[in-house]
Amino acid sequence: MWSKVDLLIVKAVSALFLSWMVDNIVTAFLCRGFAVEVEEELLNLQQDDQSLAQYFASLKSTYERLKALRSPCPTCHKTQCEQSIVAKFLQGLSPEYALAKAQMLTGAEIPNLSEAYN
């Protein structure tokens, strides 16, 4: 038989758990919505009339915001996510960097983002 104290403890733990679940669900949905907006911003990012340093800083900042909103997969992050951002960086470059872009894309390995910038 449950005592009044046991029932109060169960109610308190249940309320805490429910509150925790609701907070996590709301946070997950909000983050997903923000992540979609940041992904769109990243997708539309182009060098245009920015210097290479400005474009790189904008892209890196947007990418860091996106990483903060997504829970990363440790096994695929280095390969898939890093290669995707490098591809995005190269795709958004001005035509004057076409030769450097072609050299990076025809290499044996796709460079990381810092190497692509340098």
Nutshell version of this structure?
By secondary structure, the chain is mostly helical. The chain contains 5 helices and no strands.
Describe this structure in words.
With 118 residues, this protein is mainly alpha-helical. Helix content is 76%, strand content 0%. Helix 1 runs antiparallel to helix 2. The termini are far apart.
Unreliable stretches, pLDDT < 50, 5 or more residues? none
Strand content: under 5%
Overall average residue pLDDT: 78
Helix amount: over 70%
Radius of gyration from the alpha-carbon trace, in angstroms:
22 Å
Q: What is the strand tally?
A: 0
- Specify the oligomeric state: single chain
The biggest sheet amounts to: none
Question: Could you say which structural class the secondary elements and strand pairing correspond to?
Answer: mainly alpha
**Count, helices:** 5
- The N- and C-terminal alpha carbons lie at a distance of 71 Å
How would the global form be characterised?
elongated
Q: What is the N-to-C succession of helices and strands?
A: HHHHH
Task: Tell me the layout of helices and strands.
Elements: H1 4-44, H2 52-69, H3 74-91, H4 98-105, H5 113-117
What are the key terms here?
118 residues, mainly alpha, 5 helices, elongated
